[in-house]
Specification:
The complex is a heterodimer of chains A (111) and B (118). Chain A is an all-beta fold and 111 residues long. Chain A has strands at residues 4-7, 10-14, 19-25, 32-38, 44-51, 56-59, 62-67, 72-77, 86-93, 99-101, 105-110. Chain B is mostly beta strands. Chain B is built from no helices and eleven strands. Classes of the chains: A mainly beta (111), B mainly beta (118). Chains A and B meet through β4, β5, β9 and β10 of A and β5 and β10 of B.
């Protein structure tokens, strides 16, 4: 059974710092991995999608990597801003036509 | 940018009542999904829907739940007799190509319906 974990559960950093969020999954048989952002009480905003054949994807200050064989992905946020404060979720698309989410990392960027 | 639209944004219902949550997926998408998130917990898969039938469902999606695409644009989740533990944020999502190795764009989620059962 696929399990997705995220470390750390919460992170607080001063503005301007670069930071890394980690995601691990137990079954490497995934089709893709997607990073989402969730603001409190709000929906899910897709940030980056990495296909299983890809190693990384970049969008602006965000860079996501995928190491399928070791069951890991990282989301790198460069030059963090207070507006980056949110919960970041990783989700893997499995062979059963569904997406399994991690519990999220709650990020707080302090001005 | 195309969006998945969900209505209502918040619904309060009495225990035992039926509730219908509505979603309008992106128009050229073919695969539709419902997820839920109980406050403070993970986002959980409920059901996937393709070609007018359920393709996958979780153990959460019992006989109290049903989905329908009544008119080619809306996608609904019905809970027949709500329980207190059904209180959660319900997210609809859609995907252009489904996922079996062909999903280039992943899922697009709606902003959710917060269901409160009292």
């Amino acid at each position: 059974k696929q399990e997705v974990t995220q470390i750390p559960a919460a992170l607080s950093v001063p503005e301007g710092e670069n930071l890394v969020l980690n995601c691990s999954f137990t079954d490497s048989a995934i089709y893709n991995l997607q990073w989402f952002r969730q603001d409190p009480g709000k929906g899910l905003t897709s940030l980056l999608l990495i296909q299983s054949s890809q190693r990384e994807q970049t969008s602006g200050r965000l860079n996501a990597s995928l190491d399928k064989s070791s069951g890991r992905s990282t989301l790198y946020i460069a030059a963090s801003q207070p507006g980056d404060s949110a919960t970041y979720l990783c989700a893997v698309e499995t062979s059963y036509d569904k997406v399994i989410f991690g519990p999220g990392t709650s990020l707080s960027v302090i001005p | 940018e195309p969006e998945v639209t969900q209505t209502p944004s918040h619904q309060v219902t009495q225990m035992g009542q039926e509730v219908i949550l509505r979603c309008v997926p992106i128009s050229n998408h073919l695969y539709f999904y419902w997820y839920r998130q109980i406050l403070g917990q993970k986002v959980e898969f409920l059901v996937s829907f393709y070609n007018n039938e359920i393709s996958e469902k979780s153990e959460i999606f019992d006989d109290q739940f049903s989905v329908e695409r009544p008119d080619g644009s809306n996608f609904t989740l019905k809970i027949r007799s709500t329980k207190l533990e059904d209180s959660a944020m319900y997210f609809c999502a859609s995907s252009e190509t489904g996922f079996i190795g062909t999903s280039n764009y992943g899922y697009t989620f709606g902003s959710g319906t917060r269901l409160t059962v009292v």
